[in-house]
Amino acid sequence: MIQVTPQMRIRVAVEPVDFRKGIDGLACLCRVALGSDPFSGAILHRKNAYFYKTQNGARVGDLFMSLIHTCELNKVNPFEYLTELQKHASELSSDPDSWMPWNYRHTLQRADAT
Questions:
Q1: Please, is 38 exposed, middle or buried when counting C-beta atoms within 10 Å of its C-beta (0-12, 13-18, 19+)?
Q2: What is the pLDDT along the chain (114 residues), one digit of tens a residue?
Q3: 13 backbone dihedrals φ, ψ, rounded to 5°
């Protein structure tokens, strides 16, 4: 289960969208609804994901882009976060919830205190 904290920003579509308008039509709708540039993050990646050589490559790219964007929304440096995950791989596998971008700083503090 994903834990939601007050610092997290979650965007949810609540109305149907006509995808026949393409990425530019979707971008216009996002710009109006969100009041920000949708090409500054994840939506831009979705447009570029069509150009991966394989479907698996697109899945891996989507996974990393999702992770990076989640870090940015939670004001976490993605590179530092991924580095800490590598350093604490054994702890990560035993308790993945505590290593989510919005939790991992507290987990590191607890580990340093012991």
A1: buried
A2: 556 666 666 666 666 666 676 767 777 777 777 666 666 655 445 555 566 677 777 777 777 888 888 888 889 999 999 999 999 888 888 888 899 999 899 999 988 787
A3: -80, 130
